[in-house]
Amino acid sequence: MFNILIGHLLKWEYQLKQRSRSWLATIRVQRREILKLLNENPSLKPDVEEALPESYQNGRDLASGETNLPLSTFPQQCLYPFEEILSDRFYPGQPATDDLME
After folding, report:
1. Interacting residues of 63 by C-beta distance below 8 A, sequence separation 6+
2. Cα separation, 49 vs 61, whole angstroms
3. Is the dihedral of CA 19, 72, 80, 50 positive or negative?
4. Whole-model pTM?
5. Which residues make Cβ contacts (< 8 Å) with residue 20, sequence separation at least 6?
6. CB contact at 8 A, 59 and 2
7. pLDDT of 5-50, one tens digit each?
């Protein structure tokens, strides 16, 4: 569930010069979709939190494949707390605003 979101957060953090409006949009859309699903199905939250390590590994693979950075560039364990991953204020490295993309 978090694969794409985590992959884009990793790309955001590790490829500062490649940041784009597209990445920002993907992060925002993924967060909204996950939050909507959790709001509609609150009983899923424990399962989603439990699945975070696997989702992180999938996101790590996506980030490595899309950036051509070695997998070893990205931490082996997720350093992003669950709440931050879903927070519209959390962008690794610096806050994201539309001003960043201008």
Report:
1. 6, 7, 8, 10, 11, 14, 69, 74
2. 19
3. positive
4. 0.89
5. 101
6. yes
7. 999 999 999 998 999 999 999 999 999 999 999 999 999 989 988 9
